Amino acid sequence: MLSSLRTQKLLTSAVKLVCALILGGITEEVCYAEKGTRFPGIISFRKAPLENITGTVKDGKGEPLPGVNVLIKGTKTGTVTDIKGMFRLNLPTGNETLIFSYIGFKTQEVSVSGRNGLTVQLEEDAAALGEVVVVGYGTQKKASLTGAVATVDMKAVQDLPVSNLSAVLAGQLPGVGVSGGTSRPGENAVITVRNPIILSKDGGTLQPLYVIDNVVRSADDFNALDVSEVDAISVLKDAAAAIYGARSNQGVVVVATKRGKAGAPKFSYSGSTGISDATLPNMMNGVEQATYLNDMNNAAGKLATDPLIYTPDELAYFKDHNTNWLRQAWKPSTVQRHALNVSGGNEKATYFAGVSYNAQDANFNNINNNKWTFRASADMQVTRGLKAAISLSSYLGNKRMYYLKQGGENPENDIKSLLYTSQFNPPYVNGLPVLLSNSSNTNTIDAFNFFEVQNSNNYTQTKTTGFNVTANLEYTIPG
C-alpha cells in the first residue's frame, strides 16, 4: 500500500515537472536542483534569483535619450528607454553587465555590481554621424528615411587627390554621373542625377540644384569648397527633392559644412600629393615612317625620282635626326592639396575655422591652377531657446592656360596633333621654328609650331574671387 502511494506521488510530481517544462519553455536562465527532493532519474528546477534594475540614459548635455537599446551582455534579453530616457530590467544574479547602444553615440558597457537607479551618459560618436542624412532644410535618420536620397561616405573621400568637389563624387553614389569636362586644371567636373532631360523649349541646365547650409548656391560655389570643410553631402532625387520646387527637377545636391564642437581647441591637418602620368603609344620613328611611305608609293607605281620617294641620303639623315613631338612636350603633372582646421568652444559658444590650398598643373607646360579657400563659423546659445549662427567663406583662384589653333580648349586634340606629327620633322632648323599643318589639305595658313605657342606669352590668366556671409537665428518655443 505504501509502495503504491509512493509510486502515485512520484508520478504526480513527474507530470507536474513535465507540464512546467512544456509551459515554461526552454530559457537561458540558470537553474538549480531543489533540495530535499529525490526522484529516480528526475531533477526539478527553479529559476535563478532576479534583480530589478532601473536607470536613466542621457546624452552629453544631460538630456534624456529615448529609444536607447539596453541589452544584458551575453544574452538576447533587453529593453529600450522610454520618452524620459528611463528603463527597467530584470537582471539575473551573476550576469551584471548591461550594454547601451544608440545611433550616433558610442556603444557603452556598464557593470551594475548591485547598484540600482543607474544614470548612464552616452558619448557622441563622430564616426557614426553618417547615420544622419542631410535632407531638405534639416536632417533625418537613415532608419526612418523613405525618399530617394544618396549620401557620400566622407571618410572614404578625404584623401582623394582631386582639385574640386565635383570630382569627389565620381563613383561614390548610385544614379549620380560625374563627367570630367575638359580635364584641364581648374576645369570642374559636371554632375548629373539619374537621366536628366530639359523640358523647356528655351533650353536650360542638366545640372542639379546646389544647396549649401540651407542656402541655394551656384555650381562654382560648390566646387570652391574643399573636402576638409564639408561635413556631409546628400543627393536628393525624385520626390525627395520636391521641397525645393521646380528648380529641383534635375535633383538637388545638399551640403552641410563643418561646425565647431565644444571642447578644447582641436587642430586638424590633412594633405596629399598625386602625380598624373600616362603610357604614351609607340609610333613609327622617322626612318620607319619614311620607309613605309616609300613602300606604299613604290607599290603605287611611283618612280625613284618622284619627290614623294625618300632617297637613301634622306633615310640616313633621319636616323640621327628624330623627334618624338609628343614625348618632348609631355611631362608628369602634379596635384597637391593641404588643409588646416581648428574647432572648439564651450556649452555657450563653439567655433570652426579652416584654410586650404589646392594646386594642379597639366601634362603640358604653362598650364596650371591654384586655389585658396577660407571658412569660419560660430554658433552661440544667446538665451534659453535662442541660438545664433554665422558663417563666412571665401575663395581665391588663379588659372593659367594657352589656346592652340589645333586643340583649342580640348587637350585631346593637342595630343593627337603632336602624336600624328612625323618624327622626321624637326621642331627647329637653324634656330627657326618649323611650322606644320595637321590639316588634310595642302594649305599652310593654319600651320604653327606647338613649342613656340606653348612657350610664348600668348596665354589667358583667369582670377576668380568669392565671398559669402550667412547668419541665422533659431528660437525653440519652450514646452
TrEMBL record:
PROSITE patterns: TONB_DEPENDENT_REC_3 (PS52016). InterPro entries: CarboxyPept-like_regulatory (IPR008969), Plug_dom (IPR012910), Plug_dom_sf (IPR037066), TonB-dep_OMP_SusC/RagA (IPR023996), TonB-dep_rcpt-like (IPR039426). Residues 142-252 form the TonB-dependent receptor plug domain. It is found in: Cell outer membrane. Keywords: Cell outer membrane, Membrane, Signal, Transmembrane, Transmembrane beta strand, Transport. Its main location: membrane. The keyword Transport applies. SUPFAM superfamilies: Carboxypeptidase regulatory domain-like (SSF49464), Porins (SSF56935). One of its GO terms (biological process) is siderophore transmembrane transport. Coiled coil: none annotated. Belongs to the TonB-dependent receptor family. This is TonB-dependent receptor plug domain-containing protein. It comes from Spirosoma telluris.
